[in-house]
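Notes to self after the call with IL:
- keep both proteins in one doc
- input above output, always
- annotate only the second one for now

Protein 1:
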Amino acid sequence: MTGNTVMGEAKTRGAMTRAVIALYRVRMLFLFVSTGILVGIALFGPLFSDALRPVKSTLAGVALAGWAVTLLLVLIGPRLLPRREAVRVESPVGGRWLAMNSPASRVPSHGIRMYGQAHAIDLVHEPDRTSRPVFGTGSVMRPNSDYPAFGQPVFAMVDGVVVKASDWRRDHRARSTALGVIYLMVEGMIREFGGPGFIVGNHVTIRTVDGLYATVAHLQQGSVTVSVGDTVRGGDQIGQCGNSGNSTEPHVHAQLMDRQSLLLAQGVPLVFTAITLGDAPESHDALPRNEEHMTAA
């Protein structure tokens, strides 16, 4: 086998890999269109005349094929994604917080890679060992004021330009019991039809000079202090912790992405600078694991 042949095959494999990754980015489009077709058939199928039944069958076949393509991309795509080193960013919160759904424990951290959240982390405020309500106690849907995270300042993780700033969505009550979580799951399926903004709730996205995008989400309604086009520095306050979007309780969701669009973005690994893990005496660049506390100045 000649060197030219080897180079040609390598270029072909590279082109195929890039094509699959490009399709993987738009996998949600296949899913949404396919699901929309099937919902349409279920609602309006009985209205089709006998002459149009072949059309209905064709549409159903297209929808099932779309689902199959989506499943194939979900299985293959992540294996082809390039590996990236973790990027150091400022902590989006100050004080003592507990990590949940952390990429330090597993990737994808939230169980899925949609919306650029493969390496996202959730943080809940626990300034001491007794102040945060225990899940499963109290009413099914607790008021947000019961949680110390609600209203806490949220900071920019990076230097850059604000490309998205949204804070008009309401803060719903916490889903603080198993019944509340079941309700949230049904609620979340409905939110999916509204797009990513209804999932992440109020949020701010900042573009860095390197072309990365840092997003903090579930912010409090009316709390965002920046606008699109503003230049910010890491550590600047940009909002307050809320309970908007698909959220069980007031918390801060933080993630780094390679695209601005939540539908197209892939998650980028991150670590927080100068945080203290657990009861360690010194701070360093790190990321807490699930159920591990971090303290940020």
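Protein 2 (the one to annotate):
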Amino acid sequence: MKKLFMYFALALTVLAMPGISQAANIYGWTLDLSDYSGNTFSDIAELSVYGYGDIDQSYGGDGVLSSGDTFTVSSMLYNVAYTDINGVYYNNPDWGGGLELFFASDNLSGIVTNVDPVTGNFDYEYQSGDITLYFGNSNDIANATALATMSLSWGLGDSTSENNGGQALSGETDMGIQFITSVLANGLIWFDVNDYPELAALYPNLSTFLTFDLNNNLNTNIVPLTLTQDGFTARVTTGGDITLVATPEPSTFLILGFGLLGLVGFRKKFKKA
């Protein structure tokens, strides 16, 4: 009975195991834009981005910023650079054809938490939305090529009133964005799997993420801060780094978990026989 319980507990543990726990940061990956008449870039350690975002913050109908109040964000990260595995920084790379590589989103949303009415500090909790990686002209998104779309997996951040004269609008943002399509399988992104033996058996069928580590600063020189009775809208400049992460598909753990549950059932049936 003890062994039966042990197998059952192990199976449930595996079923509950998040794929991200097996994640590996990928340093030395390749971005291949040749299918889009662009260039190919190898040995990428991380991307660096700069752009802007528009925040629409609600006060929840009571005129005061409180935990649980919602916000929406649209973002355009139009300046993309990269650092290679040797630490060499490439600003304004020639992506090919005179075109730009950029990220854009118009539907990120979430709530604020841990609001401090004295300091004006609070935390952002991003809950939904997606970000698309484009190749083209950032001023003409409609005619740019959408290389890959990613959905928000998790999002955290803080906001303070200290940076750049902001009113609880400046601070850090961390987000995990999961590719919806398999960029490893379609050749847009690839890496030497021999450098990551723990992932080799599942390559290219891996869940692939970009982790965004960004800093946001209020900038009223571009778009003035707009205050209303039930919230505000503001423009923030955004910059930071992006890292590629790969992890086994959650289905891998589900299959293993169900297999262990099946073994438990088989063992029980065998004993009865």
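Annotation: The first strand starts at residue 24 and ends at 26. The chain is about 15% helix and 50% strand.
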